[in-house]
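Exercise: predict the structure of this protein bound to ISJ.
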Amino acid sequence: MGMEVNRTTRVGKIKYTNAWPVFHYFHPEKLQNSIELVTEVPSILNRRMLDGSLEVSAMSSFAYAEGADHFMLLPDLSVSTDGPVQSILLFSHKPLEEAVNGTIALTNTSATSVNLLKILVEKHLKGNPEYFTSEPDLEEMMNRADAGLLIGDHAIKASWENRGYYVTDLGQLWKEWTGCSMTFAVWAVRRSAVASRPKAISEIVQAFRSSKERSRSNLTPIINNAVREIGGTEHYWHRYFSNLCYDFGRREQQGLELYFKYAHELGLLKHEIKLQIWSDNTLTRVKE
Ligand SMILES: C=C(O[C@@H]1C=C(C(=O)O)C=C[C@H]1O)C(=O)O
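Solution:
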């Protein structure tokens, strides 16, 4: 067939610091294919991937599963932790065991973490709370609820303020309960884009992977940006970024599969999910 038409590919970037290493050296203007970068909180990127107004995005792993028929995962990319994450935090007035039978406010910026909380509460802690969705404003949440869930930089900033709340790190609780790692974000591509612009997708995947590798070899520029834009100390951000895993290997995939299995058992996901990962020869298979 003829040449691929160079249409603009819309790519979503997570607004939170946790995704920075994969985006720090991702420079759309240096790529051959035309790219428009959209920076938003995860819940908005999720919606735009589902409605087709983005072709490629970092997004909530839970939202990938909801739209798995339309998506493929990009290889070797995720935001995961094998234990505490420091930025997925449930703040509560009372100890966790009591809070899980009260009222819980959920940030409207997340998909993975709100469902992770539901899994942990129902399956592990045997709680039965009432949930409501809220703007990510801790004070507002704690005025109205027994506990509040924040993610990303909202959680990080709240954790620095220490208002005497109990704090539960969901990455840590998941690890204690299952022994598994947890994948909060994945990078996905719409299948329609795999078919219509394979070269652009290849180039984008390469650019993400090389940004990740470059960031890994020297975190200093990213740490400095975080101190300047969010606050906190170099020491804090060094620990934060070194603790996050940006790969998507066997261990991360197993943890995510378990999360999807539990989500399906609780009726949070309609279908069982099989991870489908894009590769450079995906197109030949899609065409068959
Ligand atoms: C580690 C984090 O993971 C984020 C959590 C997400 C979610 O809960 O849906 C989505 C994307 C991730 O970047 C975080 O926000 O702190």
